[in-house]
C-alpha cells in the first residue's frame, strides 16, 4: 500500500525519504491516450539522494549508453555529445515540503533551463520503495507533456 510521506510539523523534515535511492523504473504516461513510454529505455539507471539538512540530488540515464569514440567528452564528435546529453539528466539543490508535495529548488542541472527554478514532485513510500510522480512535463521521445512515474529502492 502506497502512503504519502508524513509531513506533520512544518519546521521539521520527514524521516523519509532521507537517504540514497536507486532507480528501479522510470515510465511516462500520455494523459490523453494512456500510452506508456520508457524515456531512457527499460534499463534506465540512476540515484536520488535526500539529506536530513534539506539537500537533494538526482541523476538518471539510459541504460547501456555508448562510450565516446574519442575516449572523452571534450574530443568527442558533436553528435556523440548530443546523444549523451539527451540520454541523461542531472540536477541538485535544496528541497522543501508543501503538504504531500516535495519541491526541488534546482541550483545546478544538466538542463540549464531548470537552474534557479523549482521542480514539483509527488512522493509516496511503500516499505523500501519510494514512488515519485510528476506533473505533466515535456518528455522523450517527442517532447509531449506526460506524467512521469519514477520508482526508487532505498540503498542507504
Helix content: under 10%
Low-confidence stretches: 1-13
Q: Give the CATH class.
A: Mainly Beta
Number of domains: 1
Percent of residues in beta strands: over 45%
Distance between the termini: 22 Å
What this model shows, in words?
The chain is mostly beta strands and 156 residues long. It has a single domain (3-7, 16-154), classed as Uncharacterised protein PF14869 family, DUF4488 (Lipocalin, Beta Barrel). The protein is built from one helix and eleven strands. It has one helix at 78-86, and strands at 3-4, 19-29, 36-37, 45-50, 55-61, 88-98, 101-109, 118-126, 129-133, 137-139, 144-154. It has an eight-stranded antiparallel barrel with strand order 2-4-5-6-7-8-9-11. A hairpin with a 4-residue loop joins strand 10 and strand 11. The longest helix has 9 residues, at 78-86. The two termini are 22 Å apart.
Keywords for this entry:
Lipocalin, mainly beta, 156 residues, 49% strand, 11 strands, single chain
Can you summarize this structure?
Helices cover 6% and strands 49% of the residues. It has 156 residues and is mainly β. The radius of gyration is 16 Å and the shape is globular.
Amino acid at each position: 500500500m502506497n502512503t504519502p510521506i508524513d509531513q506533520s510539523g512544518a519546521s521539521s523534515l520527514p524521516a523519509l525519504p532521507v537517504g540514497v535511492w536507486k532507480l528501479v523504473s522510470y515510465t511516462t504516461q500520455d494523459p490523453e491516450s494512456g500510452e506508456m513510454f520508457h524515456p531512457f529505455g527499460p534499463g534506465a539507471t540512476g540515484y536520488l539522494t535526500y539529506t536530513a539538512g534539506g539537500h537533494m540530488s538526482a541523476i538518471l540515464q539510459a541504460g547501456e549508453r555508448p562510450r565516446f569514440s574519442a575516449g572523452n567528452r571534450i574530443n568527442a564528435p558533436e553528435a556523440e555529445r548530443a546523444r549523451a546529453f539527451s540520454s541523461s539528466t542531472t540536477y541538485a539543490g535544496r528541497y522543501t515540503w508543501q503538504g504531500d508535495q516535495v519541491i526541488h529548488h534546482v541550483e545546478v542541472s544538466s538542463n540549464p533551463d531548470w537552474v534557479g527554478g523549482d521542480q514539483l514532485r509527488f512522493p509516496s513510500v511503500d516499505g523500501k520503495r519510494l514512488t515519485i510522480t510528476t506533473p505533466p512535463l515535456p518528455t522523450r521521445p517527442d517532447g509531449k507533456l506526460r506524467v512521469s512515474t519514477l520508482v526508487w529502492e532505498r540503498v542507504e
